Amino acid sequence: MVESKALRSLFKRLNHRSSGHN
C-alpha cells in the first residue's frame, strides 16, 4: 500500500498549497 502513502503525501502538499494560495 505504498501508493496510498504517496497519494496521501501528494494530497497533503496540494492542500497546503491551496491553503496558502487562498
UniProtKB/TrEMBL annotation:
Sequence ranges of Basic residues compositional bias: 10-22
Disordered: region residues: 1-22
Lineage top rank: taxon: Eukaryota
Protein name: Uncharacterized protein
Species whose genome carries this gene: Anguilla anguilla (European freshwater eel)
